[in-house]
Amino acid sequence: MREVGLRLDVFLLALTILWAPALSDLVLSKVDRRIDLTSQIARITSTLKVENAGSGLVSEVLLAFPESQAKHLAHLTATPNEGKGKVKGSGISYPVQLVHAKDMPPSLTFYSVSLPKGLGKGDSFTFDVLAVFTHALKPFPEKITQADIQLLVFQDSAHYLSPYAVKVQTLSVKLPDARIESYTRIENTKNIGSEIKYGPYENLPPYSYSPIVVHFESNQPFAVAEELVREIEISHWGNIQVTEHYKLVHGGAQSKGEFSRLDYQARPHVRGASAIRRLVAKLPPRAHSVYYRDEIGNVSTSNLWSDFKKTELEIEPRYPMFGGWRTAFTIGYGLPLHEFLFESDGKRFINISFGCPINEVVIDTLIVKVVLPEGSRDISVSAPFPLKQWQEKKFSHLDLVGRPVVALEKTNAVPEHNQKFQVYYKFNSLAMLWEPLMLIFGIFFLFVTGIVYMHVDMSISKSSASYLAKLQWDEVQAAIQQIRNIIARCLVIHDKVEASLRDLSRTGDIQACKAARKAADGLLKELSKEMKPLLAFLQSSQQAAHLLPKVEELVVKVKDLEERLMVKHSTIVDCYEKKYGGREIENRVASQVQKITALRQEVDDLLEFIDEI
After folding, report:
1. Residue-wise pLDDT tens digits, 195-233
2. Which are the contacts of 96, defined by CB distance < 8 A and separation ≥ 6?
3. What's the mean pLDDT in 89-109?
4. CA–CA separation, 495 vs 490, rounded Å?
5. Between 243 and which of 11, 215, 231, 508 could a Cys-Cys bridge form, CB atoms 3.0 to 4.6 Å apart?
């Protein structure tokens, strides 16, 4: 099915380019293409030597891409050719922009490279073009088990697709391993180890296209960040806090069947060759306070190496990631402010990297948020590539109007986008004192409030009706409590009278029992005198109106209990003087004992009721 689709694409492409007009002014005298497929990102570097075969001045060169490639194009740049084997160090790039050329095939996408100077008749110029593609490598088969190796398919053309005629062209395809399942063999094709070479091919007409398919083994991890949100918060007190939120998925061949942890632990490079086991983030040299966590909490399976040139954070997910598996985590670290914040023409600007610090990660959606200090104004952004941008507000501690946030979004981001960008803004240095002054005045106000509270009488006015009512209720409660205490003392005296009767039955000492009775009478009379003014106060107070009936009932019950107890005492003493027997004495006082018991229970119930109130 995949082969049928490829043939159909090639057929449609061939139909559209047969009638396409050639641009005769320019000729590509030499083309050297190098395709790097050693990672999940396909990088195609083309060295083009253009020659003006016409009479007019030429200032731009068109680059053509089939629609199947153009939709996966993530990065395109044109740079001076430094010569074979030389390291590029100039940092110069030529302007590249998307164009809609007239009378060109609709299935092709064209980009224009502006040359540094126009080419006259017979002049030539050599430059390099780097095209970076994501999701161009397709797993085939699309689903594999834990023990299977991962195989990928890549499609391209052995001939350089261009609106210009090509005199000489070569192509080399660099693979991650020498184990190749299959590849298209045409004229002048050879395989040397992990590299496939096509060409040289001479005198190719414009829009020449010769499809090739390479099916090869690659166990490189396909780490794809479906979304990465980087928040860069600037503090003029000397620190930049960077927080990165990742939603990661393994974009390679989907895993099918069961996962065996035992097999993976025993032979991880065989039973999980294409799994993502670890990721390495290259942080700035003096990064500090580095952390790595997910939704569960801090993840301890990480290592950090740092020196004066770089800081590397090696992280391991909580589980090995096979095809289609997902994870989400957060990386955070701090940076010294003076190494990234500068000042120019009355404006401050931050100069920091845009992309992802983790190696060879494809990012479907990258959002970078730069949080500026509160009070920043006249904000502008300078970036080396087009970005979608907007502004937000973020509130943090001690903020009043919020901190301005510059949000930048880039889709289909690759490591080549990890370039410096700048955010310019104006900021009054005196505004730095605002938050410390707020903190100082806040603490000062707190202490002043405490002093005022301690020295000012916050109670209700003593002349108000509610305050007077509260005082009266407090007096009522105090009087009831005193009556309660007097009754408790009366009950204690009653218990002593009962105890004297028990002693009488044991010792027969009538005189001692009479003496105890006489003492009890004296104490009870004194307690009765103490209770009279308290009852009179309750009877005169409106606050005690709802409690007075119960208190009076309690006093009556206690008085009745006292009288019946004394009758019982007199009866028993009289019986002892007349020398009656024990059973006769019990019969005489039996009715009194029952009444005393009942009255004592009623008194206890009334006391409990008053205590609850």
Report:
1. 999 989 999 999 999 999 999 999 888 999 999 999 999
2. 63, 76, 77, 78, 111, 112, 113, 114
3. 82
4. 9
5. 231
